[in-house]
Amino acid sequence: MSTAPGTASGTAPWRDPALPAPVRVDDLLARMTLEEKTAQLYGVWVGAATDGDGVAPLQREMTADHDWDELITLGLGQLTRSFGTAPVDPALGAQALARAQRRIAEAGRFGIPAVAHEECLAGFTAWQATAYPVPLAWGATFDPALVEELGGRIGRDLRAAGVHQGLAPVLDVVRDLRWGRVEETIGEDPYLVGTIGTAYVRGLESAGVVATLKHFAGYASSAGARNLAPVRAGGRELAEVTLPPFEMALREGGARSVMAAYTETDGVPASADPRLLTELLREDWGFTGTVVADYFGIGFLQSLHRVAADPAEAARIALEAGIDVELPTLSCYGTPLVDAVRDGRIPEALVDRAARRVLLQKCELGLLDPDWTPETGERVDLDSAGNRALARRLAEESVVLLDNPGGALPLVPDARIAVVGPRAADALAMLGCYSFPSHVLTHHPEVPLGIDIPTVLDALRAELPDAKVAFAEGCGVSDPDTSGFAEAVARASESEVCVAVLGDRAGLFGRGTSGEGCDAEDLRLPGAQAELLDALVATGVPVVLVLLTGRPYALGRWQGRLAAVVQAFFPGEEGGPALAGVLSGRVNPSGRLPVSVPHRPGGQPWTYLQPPLGLAGEVSNLDPTPLYPFGHGGSYTAFAWEDFTGPEAEIPTDGGYDLSLTVRNTGERAGAEVVQLYLHDPVASVTRPDIRLIGYRRVELSPGEARRLTFRFHTDLSSFPDRTGTRIVEPGELELRLAASGTDVRHRARLRLTGPVRPVGAGRRLRCEVTETEA
């Protein structure tokens, strides 16, 4: 790599890997011009479309053309989505990215490459890359170790392709099931979101990829479940529900980047909030990484939020708040920022602060080292056999058996089966909106999927070769046309069992029934699917409902009328075989609900984290009680919970307490049980959720096998923000509940906390450790 004569020497302190990173970066910053420093604060989206609907909010309006050759003479902070903008062969894409990086390094005085970032919400969002189950399916596994393995695999694929930063995971906690981005979340409980999300971060970071936590903070609490709508959550709700997963992923996962949310809370946009992005994130939590803008988020301070008069003012507000990098392209942090610094409207110290953070991260990534090279030297295979095996295992663990009252499942191997529904024979039924086929390929209909995605129909025929399987679509996903009902009813009537495969079509900004910008008015099944299901049930043939969705839908209309109900949340490219395995009995279902399944389509928003006034009562005719509660899920085997030890006890407000039980598989086949620990606080100085999850353990058992589980509760887990916003542990009564779901309580332990009110800070315990031994 060359540097311009007479400028940055290869022997300068900033080039010396033996020196501490802060020393190197301070030396480099002192050598840079204002323009060169600001160039480190933005990304460039090469090849981004400026027409059409795009893959980001208001992409067409917010994207401008730039002179690439002139731009990179100043250096460049980030390269936006080299793989995720259009279909490109992965090996060729890696070569093209390496060439672009070499050009950037050669064009600038200091030879510093850009940070290349990509989306990796459910796998590397690139053509021919493995499409894994969506995060909501990760939550259904209740298996952090498996999700950590997932993060590691995705991270290694990103690094092999030359990518440094992944824009994941989403740590938003579901607050309204109608929100289009429910599929991108891990669930409706902050402890589940925090533990699963932290596991993914650990995996991604273990591969040397910068994990980016999003969307910080409050994005999922938008009013009316509308994407980008104002957030009307109070400060205590944010502290209790929204913030804990981010804190855990930073403290325990080591995430090195955070993405500011689009939304505003109580009139203050997140991108303009120094209390959030500086005081809380950096001063209270000790975060030292980079804060990046969500795509066009800084420009939105002017165009959508109207708290800035022009791009320069938007740049000032964002820098003051603590946003270091403008993504996906330059609008505010380019010429408007430079001009505003030159004329005294913005202190250069703000630029220096952000540039120092960016360069420190580049230093950590090796991008300032003299031996840096853009070629990784690794083979680029983004859908390896190992990837597919992991995708299959994750899909299998995520399938939730909601109901099987008469034992209709597993299916009889040689049965006459009618497979009906708009999701049965469509490969895209498996994928969420941030998979490459759903996210990008819809704009390139001439390009093949690039990966093999068996449908439920094909997988079931392969799984049960002796069965006689007939198919009818019945209806589309979202249109009201019922002309296909007659054929569907005929196929069902001729069969011994009907498998109705219904659900969502993932898309963006109204082009789907689930996904970013695809918010729902209510929780009825889309289109004519509910009427199709009614017609199938009316035949009298047993109907097994299989749902492929990005959110739960209200199912109370069919309560007691279905032979079985199976829920899968966009289970990825191996979802078809995984579902066929559950239906055949080859796979024993072990998924548990990360979100409640509503009884009725109205009465929203509702999640299980409710104080007394949020529960059913006589003062309202609307009963929000779900049909299937958070944590619910069935199995083809049975488990006994034995030898519980958890007597009543008194412990100090800074004490701990162990609960133990033995879980035994009393059935005839191997299976997995998920033991969940909930906290109930009967009297407190502020209202509390009736119950909330504070621990869990997934345990796999062979027939007759037993394991002893010990949950190590600490009083920190009972802490909450008091009326002043101070997080405290309060003396008084507590009840710990070991349960198979939010409502299926098996054992209770009653505690009395004694001593003074105890304030707790950022060093408090965030998780309940669980040990597992032979019984």
UniProtKB/TrEMBL annotation:
Q: What SMART domains does UniProt report for this protein, alphabetically?
A: Fn3_like
Q: In what residue span(s) does the Fibronectin type III-like domain sit?
A: 673-742
Arranged from A to Z, the UniProt key words for this protein are: Hydrolase
Gene Ontology BP annotations:
carbohydrate metabolic process
Keyword Ribonucleoprotein in annotation: no
Q: Which GO terms describe its molecular function?
A: hydrolase activity, hydrolyzing O-glycosyl compounds
Give the source's domain of life in one word: Bacteria
Q: Does the keyword Zinc apply?
A: no
Matches recorded under PANTHER family:
BETA-GLUCOSIDASE (PTHR42715:SF10)
The protein's name: Glycosyl hydrolase
Q: What is the lineage of its organism?
A: Bacteria, Bacillati, Actinomycetota, Actinomycetes, Kitasatosporales
